[in-house]
Amino acid sequence: MNSSFRGAGAIAAAMALVAVVSGSYLGYRQLSQPSCTGSVPLVVAASPEIVEPIKAAADAKVVAGAGVDGRCLEVTVQAAEPVEIAAAIATKHATTLTGVGQGSGATVLPDVWVPDSSTWLQRLEQAAPGFQPLNGASVATSPVVVAMPEPLAKTMVGWPEKKLQWSELLGQMTSSDSPLKAGIVDPARDASGLSGLLALGQASAGNGNDAARVGVLRTLALNRSNLRADLMAKFPKSEDPAALANGVGLAALSEEDVIAYNATQPPVSLAALYVEPAAVALDYPFAVMPEADATKGNAADLLFGELASSPAYRDSLAKAGLRGADGSAGGGFTAPTGAPSPEAIAASAPATGGGAANGLDAAAIGRALASWTAITSPGRMLVVFDVSGSMLSPVPTAADKTRNEVMVEAAGRGLGLLDNEWWLGVWVFSTELQGSRDYRELVPIGQLSKQRDALQASLGEVQPVEGGATGLYDTVLASYLAVQEGYQADKVNSVVLFTDGQNEDANSISRDELIAQLKEKSDAKRPVRVILIGIGNEVNKEELESIAAAGGGGAFVAQDPAKIDEIFLQAIASRAATVG
Q1: Which residues contact 210 (CB under 8 A, 6 or more apart)?
Q2: What is the H or E stretch that residue 471 is in?
Q3: I need a labelling partner for 182 at 20 to 30 A (CA). Which of 39, 74, 196, 570 fits?
């Protein structure tokens, strides 16, 4: 058994990453045989808890004299937190992952990557279509459970006899008199946290309860941790009622986390609750990086063969608190009380290669993380609505509601998601709405805690002007300057503008002039992000992208206006992701 649980291993993993950057690799294994005409170096970066089993399998393959084209294997297995490798891959592909930020340009990417979850691959493939790793098959599994101090598990949910549903857990978390304090490792940076967030989100969606979903997000945000070790340190250290009440009472973690934590013989052990329906399990995909040449690809195949079929490797996984890809475990593995069958565990693992499993796909992950970002990254935002005449057009996929109705309803739901730390204002635009001006202020930018009712009421004033045209260029520039003027350094300052058309104001500045003005007015000390949301098929995506790029932001287009909710969430998430 690996005596250090994943959170406690974060420092070691960070040291290992430094070793990768410097070129001095840890875990180096080489065997020179007379029959070798050279060597094939293969660098594997793996999630810390699975490093030792992979090292043992690599050693076995090397000792057996495995090679490619007469050259012997040279295998390096390196511990690396998945978020660090994911950030480096995203940066290489000139993109970012929501909540992850930029990777180190000095990080040396491996030939093979074994993160703890395929959700990392799904997120990267969504953000960077050019990232297409090979293989991706699972080499281990660890179910995602709800970890709860055993005394609380017995008294609060009837563990171990009673099976718990996510909907019941949702009720516990949102109840005003519940003594349970929920914690989470930031789901944008942790696969177990993401799995728990998705499961809770699906439970609340199943109840049709948006308020419950928002309430859970805000509850989790209060006790979020960026590192696994920080969260684990918040579990109670005694069974004293005060300690149990003040410590973290539940958190989504992996089965391996609970096994490793309890192996340290803490004052209060953790129960592993296998909540139903099963959350997406950690599946440890064996991803061969696209840059690996054919020779390294063949070397990776040799190593994968050992991981896929060796009983010794399965036993090594068991010692590390992990199961095989099929959910079964090797010798010496002791499953936590209440664990389901191996078949049930295998069924909860995500499909490999970025596919969907149990209804989960990259879009579902994106929506969950965008909602999380809106809760945990309060900002200062001016929302600008197009009220030109074309916004009266019906949307067949939304029961013939108008584009305006669909847009306003989505904005209302988005407003409900934001907490009181946000600063928000509302404008509308068409042409000549206020004298010669194309735009008009409905609510000035102010703290949401002081003007939530006014903002909600203003949505009723967002009404299309029959015959009104689209005064896009002047409005973008004016809104940008307005946000910049009241810039707040402790927040992400942004403009989010909805439009269903192209600029139609003959008296406005040109697109080239707008872009030039945005670039000229930009200030590194007062950055403002321009996020443009196109509605329908009449927008010019290239136009929106060029303007947004000049404004340090991004453009999104909802070809089907009925999907504006999803696009709006993506826009909010991108607002934070663009911060350098």
Answers
A1: 204, 413, 416
A2: none
A3: 570
**Cβ neighbours of residue 132 under 8 Å, at least 6 residues apart?**
125, 290
Dihedral pair phi/psi, residue 167, rounded to 5°: -65, -35
The tens digit of pLDDT for each residue in 312-361 reads: 999 999 999 999 999 999 999 999 999 988 888 888 777 544 333 344 67
Give pairs for 155-161: CB < 8 Å, separation 24+: 156/180, 156/249, 157/273, 159/271, 159/273, 159/337, 159/338, 160/271, 160/337, 160/338
Give residue-wise pLDDT tens across range 501-536. Answer: 899 999 999 999 999 999 999 998 999 999 999 999
Question: Residue 396: is the preceding peptide bond cis (ω within 30°)?
Answer: no
Cβ-count burial of 523 within 10 angstroms (0-12 exposed, 13-18 middle, 19+ buried)? exposed
Question: Helices 210-222 and 191-206 meet at what angle, rounded to 10?
Answer: 150
The answer to whether 136 and 118 are in contact (CB under 8 A) is yes
Under the phi-then-psi rule, with left for phi > 0, alpha for psi from -120 to 50, and beta for the rest, what region is 65? left
For 220-251, letters b (16+ CB in 10 Å) and e give bbebbbebbbebbebbbeeeeeebbeebbbbb
Q: Do residues 494 and 483 touch, judged by C-beta distance below 8 A? A: yes
Of the pLDDT bands very low, low, confident and very high (cuts 50, 70, 90), residue 7 is very low
Measured between its terminal Cα atoms, the distance across the chain in Å is: 40
| Stronger pLDDT, 366 or 432, i.e. the higher one | 432
Q: Is the pTM of this model over 0.85?
A: no
- H helices of 140-190, in order, are 150-157, 166-174
Burial label, 436 (beta-carbon count in 10 A; 0-12, 13-18, 19+):
exposed
Work out the average pLDDT over 93-117: 86
Q: Tell me the pLDDT of the chain averaged across its residues.
A: 86
394: exposed, middle or buried (Cβ count in 10 Å: 0-12, 13-18, 19+): middle
The answer, yes or no, to whether residue 210 has pLDDT greater than 80, is no
SS3 of 338-360: CCCCHHHHHHCCCCHHHCCECCE
Residues 284 and 116: beta-carbon distance below 8 Å: yes
- DSSP-derived letter for residue 70 is T
Helix (H) or strand (E) segment spanning residue 361: none
Strand (E) or helix (H) holding 476:
helix 472-485
pLDDT (tens digit, 9 = 90+) per residue, 167-184? 888 877 766 667 788 999
